[in-house]
Amino acid sequence: MPGIAIGRLCEKCDGKCVICDSYVRPSTLVRVCDECNYGSNQGRCVICSAVGVSDAYYCQGCVIQEKDRDGCPKIINLGSAKTDLFYHKKAAGEITGGGGRTY
């Protein structure tokens, strides 16, 4: 669940929606859970964990689709980053899809 801490973005990610990476119509301020904003992670970029320089916003499209209510955006981005990495490695041939059943 999102906490009271405001999400931040670095210079490279500034202006992006934290869910869909859109640069259009920033709408709602991003809230980050207390665990993701603790200690050395405080004030870090929600997307890439660099030093945060500006506030993070959800775009109007993600607010309409209620993606801003899915939970902490840092955790959501971490999960999607791991999934993307898996498919990039699979496309590059580093992961073979063996071992299982074939239908």
SSE topology:
Layout: E1 5-6, E2 8-9, E3 26-29, E4 31-32, E5 54-55, E6 57-59, H1 60-64, H2 73-92
Antiparallel strand pairs: 1-4, 2-5, 3-6
Summarize the structure in words:
There is one protein chain. The protein is α+β, with helices and mostly antiparallel strands and 103 residues long. Helix content is 24%, strand content 15%. It contains two helices and six strands; from the N terminus they run ββββββαα. The protein is globular and about 45 Å long. The N and C termini lie far apart (40 Å). The model has no long low-confidence stretch (mean pLDDT 82).
Low-confidence stretches: none
Distance between the terminal alpha carbons, to the nearest Å? 40 Å
- Global mean pLDDT: 82
Strand content: 5-15%
- Rounded Rg: 16 Å
Strand order in the largest sheet: 1-4
Largest sheet: 2 strands, antiparallel
Number of strands: 6
> How would you sum up the global shape?
globular
What is the N-to-C order of secondary-structure elements (H for helix, E for strand)? EEEEEEHH
Looking at how many chains there are and whether they match, the oligomeric state comes to single chain
Structural class: alpha+beta
